[in-house]
TrEMBL record:
Keywords attached to this entry: Copper, Disulfide bond, Metal-binding
UniProt xrefs under Gene3D superfamilies: Glutaredoxin (3.40.30.10)
Protein name, UniProt field: SCO family protein
PROSITE patterns in the cross-refs: THIOREDOXIN_2
Amino acid sequence: MIWAVAGCASNADTTAERNSGQTAANNDVSALNWQVPFFTYTNQDGETFGFQDLKGKIWLTDFIFTRCPNICPPMTANMLKIQNALKQAGMEAEIVSFSVDPEYDQPEKLKEFAKNYGADLNSWHFVTGYSFEEIQKLVKDTFKGAVSRQEGPSPDVPVLVNHPSQFYLVDQNGKVVKFYDGLRPDAGQIVNDIKVLQEGK
């Protein structure tokens, strides 16, 4: 099963668990044909960014928002560790972090968030420029998870967004092949999985 929506609140969604039949120990979903659709959105620099920019590339993706009070900070710190591990291994892979709070997460917010974590924006793209309903649909249809909103606990955090806590590995053809626990990822395993894709095995 995929416990795909740990999210930023306490409730968990089981849609992906029912649909995938996968477990965290068996995270290979390459046979399930989770194909990322064509998209054109906006990155942290306010520039157009989309599927065409990732064509023929291997990429990791996750779902975050800059006002997230709990799981997004460790997820982003963990993704940075993976980016650094890839550099140390002399390997190339793109990283795409989609905001699940797109109305608030305008490019300047995403850029500030990225800089706070030391993300290398040459290969890590923070994405917005769509409606909340669009990102809900992308997560549901492609990644078999769910995104939902609820009132936040304070004026500083007025909105909480439940969203997947996984990292997803996408191959050169835009197909999701594996997922990982974004709160406890094994960077070495992810680097090795990317190497396997690069070698065409």
